[in-house]
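Methods — Computational structure assignment.
A single polypeptide chain was analysed. Its primary sequence is given first, followed by the predicted tertiary structure written as structure tokens.
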Amino acid sequence: MKALNSFGFPVLRFNFRGTGLSEGEHDHGHGEVDDVRAAIDWLDNEFHLPLIFAGFSFGAAVGLQPACIDERVDGLVGLGLPVAAIDDRTYDFSFLQTCSKPKLFVSGSRDQFGPRQQLQRVVDSAADPKQLVIIEAADHFFEGRLREMREAIEAWIRETYTNIS
């Protein structure tokens, strides 16, 4: 959030249905896709600016696909992408094979839900352009490594969107 905002991107940070104080019930990733679409619609209507989707863990797993096919979204950031099963939940990332938008994946070397080999296979299968950054000694929540995560996002923005300083 802070990395994108530091470049002047408006940021919308929200809880999915049934999380925190949000209304509704968790829908196991189905209705949450609608939440992502609603967030993209709101940002577009409110700001009329290019959009970069960034999601963490479940938010990345659920949000990357609708963001990938939405022409208003220019780039994608997946943080702590859960490529290993979590509580019998698995995610299908095959849509990334045809997603030609710039993509950044950031994960910790100790991410229990993103083992490096499995994550590398997902990233390797994704269409270009793409970049994978592994933060050494970081766990799934980037505990004690948020600065490195932010720096990775900032470097990717500078490299990918050269007209941004």
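Note: Residues 17 and 150 are 26 Å apart (CA to CA).
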